[in-house]
Amino acid sequence: MADLLQEYRVGVILSVEECGKSKGLRACQINIGDEGNPVTVVTSASNVRVGSRVAVAPVGSKVIDEQGEEMEIKSTTVGGVVSDGMLCDSRMLGWAGGAAGIAAQIPESIAIGEAPPSTKPRKDSAVAAPSEESAAEVQGLFEKKLTKEEKKKLAEERKKARKAAKEAKGSEE
Questions:
Q1: Which residues of the chain fall below pLDDT 50?
Q2: Distant-in-sequence, close-in-space partners of 12: CB < 8 Å, separation ≥ 6
Q3: What sign does the CA torsion over 56, 61, 64, 66 have?
Q4: What pLDDT, on the 0 to 100 scale, is given for residue 135?
Q5: Is the pTM of this model over 0.85?
Q6: Contact between 57 and 81 (Cβ < 8 Å)
Q7: Is the CB of residue 12 less than 8 Å from the CB of residue 51?
Q8: For residue 102, what is the DSSP state?
Q9: In angstroms, rounded to a whole number, what is the distance separating the alpha carbons of residues 115 and 13?
Q10: Contact 91, 101 (CB under 8 A)
Q11: Distance between alpha carbon 78 and the CA centroid of its chain, in Å?
């Protein structure tokens, strides 16, 4: 398995587009180290987003199929789009945990174009935590529910902001 990982590449998704009439298929342009020449990968993974860092099995690499046999990745047409690789899920990378069919996410500590790690990266590991600014820009799939006190404070802040804007508009006229 470790030697197969050396064939795979960490990439960042540059764009995601729906594939023709095929529902659930997406064509992703992915930079896997050659920024001027991104690869196109067609996938049904539901967690692909622009900016996601994923593991890619490019054309010529091998993956282990459900029967445990090696299968070479070839350029093929899927949903009317030529796919030049395959996104790897946790099982394909030999990682413990993770769901089948969900693209494995790779931390920023692994450079684009490198082979993915042999074990699943953990949030509590030495991976640098994102700054507060970048965390504010990228919201998760689920947001925390506000407490009553937080809701009241937020409503009060909005009310003050509206009042200040109204007063500023009135003073301009």
A1: 125-139
A2: 30, 31, 51, 52, 53, 54, 112
A3: positive
A4: 42
A5: no
A6: no
A7: yes
A8: S
A9: 16
A10: no
A11: 21
Backbone dihedral angles phi then psi of residue 100, each to the nearest 5 degrees: -70, 140
Q: How many CA atoms, within 13 angstroms, populate the side-chain half-sphere of residue 172? A: 6
Sorted by sequence, the CB contacts under 8 Å of residue 39 that are 6+ apart come out as 11, 29, 30, 32, 56, 58, 84, 85
Residue carrying structure tokens 């409503």? 155
Residue 152: both structure tokens together: 């009241």
What residues contact residue 22 under an 8 Å CB cut-off, 6+ apart?
78, 79, 80
Residue 9's DSSP bridge partners are 56
- The SS3 call for residue 76 is strand
- Residue closest to 50 by CA, chosen among 102, 10, 13: 13
Q: Amino acid letter at 49?
A: R
**Residue 85 host element (H or E):** strand 85-87
